[in-house]
Design brief:
The chain is an alpha/beta fold. Helices cover 30% and strands 18% of the residues.
Amino acid sequence: MPNIPIATGVRAFHERYPVWLCDIWGVLHNGVAVYPEAPAALAQFRATGGIVILVTNAPRPHAAIAGQIGKLGVPAGAYDAIVTSGDVTRALIAAEAGHGVYHLGPAHDRVLFEGLGVSLVGVDEAKAVVCTGLFDDLTETPETYVPALSAMREKSMPMICANPDIVVERGAQICYCAGAIGQAYERLGGKVAYAGKPKAPIYEAALTAAARLRGRPVDRSQALAIGDGLKTDMLGAFDFGLDALYVASGIHLDATAGLTEAGLAALFAGQPSRPIAAVARLAW
């Protein structure tokens, strides 16, 4: 099998793919600081007539994410629209209207529930659990939650996982996400509905947004998925029929070793998805 080519930047892809579906965390920023070349590259692509849809597994509505990345230094001129896992999750939560649900995750994610007609209650009164993350992802691990998850499993509580990501980089630290809790619950026999990548609804929403901006439908062959997660960005693009560009990050590769063809070959060995190319960072 041929090696995955390593590109020096994204300029080479702007003519073939008029629409880019770009991940945020790990590609535009690391949770602490923005990567300055990344939004500049997206802005340059937009200047050529391209459309950028930011597609993120963040478990909050897109308006909240726009504010968050703006504070980190990602200007509005770097993208046309944002589609979040939170947007998709709200549709799943709405199906629980009239019921009590338990929110497993930090308080700042509660904007997700606004206007949906559900009551946030304790785990003993809840009919379902919505997981947006760990209460404290700097100190806790999925194992912290095994007793609570076991009790939920005994009650056969369905879980809605608002962020399928397993881990993210926060500065130099690797932190667990809601997807890790979802996996732990499944190992206990629990039922989990995942929103966001790698599931199809978030890609459908992204292409719908792009079509609205272009004024005409967007064929999947015209869209390039850009991301750093194998089980989310790469697998999701593959399953949805999109080409993908892999952005190296500390989630999967040792940053001190650099991006090499040998390292890429080892990383994607046995994976069903292979990107058309890889870059060390998102830059024009």
